[in-house]
Fold these 2 entries.
Entry 1:
Amino acid sequence: MDASRRKQINELAVTVRESLGLTTPIDVEEVIDRLGGSIEDFDPYYGQDAEAYVRKSGDSFAIAVNDCVGHARRRFSIAHELGHLFLHLGYLIDDDLWGSVDSYIDSVRHRMGYNEEEFEAHEFAGSLLMPADEFRIVANQFFADGLYPLEKIAEYFDVSSKAVKVRGCWLGVFSWE
Ligand SMILES: [Zn+2]
């Protein structure tokens, strides 16, 4: 994923937030509902060992998350699947792509190693849950004693500290060390 693709994905996430009037912390299940999709019980047939999946369901879609996943991770997983929905299934933004998709299975299942679609879906999830502009403002607000308190930022966005760390590094707010 090059810089322009990353920028495009961040902008798409902002567009989704703005068009649905979402505010932080966003309610990911409400997002699914507002987009016309549904949450379903995790069916191993589609996901097997996966943490979550998105599948086409008639003209719409269904997302499921494995029960073993905790709160913050569940939120991130749903946002990740929404990334696949827009970026790789074309839902609402690319009718040709959406029309050509029969059954999409989260790429993590059937491709090993390096996986561009996974990076893209992760970027979308980070952008949807933690928009770049808001992230910078909030990180600076919490900055104290020479440190960014990851837990406080995580609480603000209702995500894991690890997700905050990764997002902040990509945005150049934190260093990777
Ligand atoms: Zn995925």
Entry 2:
Amino acid sequence: MPASPVPLSPLPTPLNVGLAGLGTVGAGVIRLLAANADLVAARAGRPIRVVAVSARDRQRTRGVDLSGFAWEDDATRLAARADVDLVVELVGGADGPALTLARATLGAGKPLVTANKAMLAHHGLELASLAEGTGTALRFEAAVAGGIPVIKGLREGAAANRLSRVYGILNGTCNYILSRMAAEGLEFADVLADAQAQGFAEADPGFDIDGVDAAHKLTLLSALAFGTPPDLARVQVEGIRHVRLADVRQAEALGYEIRLVGLSERVGDALAERVAPCLVPRAHPLASVTGPLNAVVAEGDFVGRLLFVGAGAGAGPTASAVVADLIAIARGESGPAFSTAAAALVPLPVASAAERVGRYYLRLRVADRPGVLADLTAILRDAGVSIESLNQPASGADGTALVVMVTHECAETAARAAVVRMAELSAVAEPPLIMPLLPTEG
Ligand SMILES: NC(=O)c1ccc[n+]([C@@H]2O[C@H](COP(=O)([O-])OP(=O)(O)OC[C@H]3O[C@@H](n4cnc5c(N)ncnc54)[C@H](OP(=O)(O)O)[C@@H]3O)[C@@H](O)[C@H]2O)c1
């Protein structure tokens, strides 16, 4: 009797991807999918393949082979293609073509994977609602902290916890600048110019150094951690432009490192969201995060403190996060984009500065003459702020002196009001700098 033929198991259906944006991250995704195709297919349960792409300039050399992909001049058309199951948006920008494509994709009921924190910070609630309305997925692992799986960590790993705060180093450019200032004794402007020359910092670095990029990411962490819709207007944002080498050295002498920290925390029934340069105690894990690395800390009522550290940007790490989202979708993993269903995201009251209590670092450059210190300390006394330490490290040849103070715990409003009054003194030679101290336990 002839042997009956062995039935062939049907080949799994590939997940067909339309990819918009072939820059740093887009080209990285193509490279990763080519290099790890078998491994990705094994883990996803089906092959994941790019079928169509879009960018601005079709002639540009990108170091990746695009010959097997259909080309669309208009990225929005990727969403309508019958051979595209899912769209990856790596164009960037809060509005414009990225948003048009995101709306078209989710509106068509197709999953969207994006690394675009600016778009999600501005339109995250609308896009999450749209995805839920059409029963599809919106995923953005690469939008916060590059390669670090912090979105998955909060959305899934820590989903059972009531979180009290989530904070971290969310911008690699700022961390790189602050780390080099400390390591090489350089001023902010010199490191920035060098970073731009080497391509580490954008020609227009404002989004990074003024804290806006970190604020975009913080809104997404807040949504995941606290069930509040992403809302940039709620975030108090300060960047690192005004941090001097002298501040870095004074912080070191006090046992701290300066880091740009994005912090979102419950204050009673309210939520405080802030991006600011902070003094981080040397014993805190964020103090040892140097160079372009990112790190996120989340504190949950059952899990305790979680720490995520890794590369916050770059083609490889960011592509790793994008493809992780593709694998999750290929596996059929679902659930709301921001962990809580879009309709159930509720804006929490914004914590007032009066409710925010902490210790603060104050730096002033003042005329080097008798009585000035007494005037400064009188202002703090009148504001109800007591001084933990006061240092006058050096007198300049220009007749001014640096004064550095650390306050005891006080209301932020009191410390800031005192700084405003100090700035009005004729003896104060330049705008003072105020920076919060991150608590050791925080
Ligand atoms: N770079 C990182 O390390 C990193 C990390 C995390 C998240 N992200 C996010 O990832 C996204 C992409 O960043 P990137 O660094 O890869 O940017 P990029 O290098 O500037 O690349 C942007 C790409 O978008 C294309 N593009 C621009 N306008 C377009 C349009 N109207 N239609 C179709 N394509 C268009 C550009 O085309 P041409 O090449 O033809 O000009 C380019 O290929 C952004 O949202 C960014 O915030 C980046």
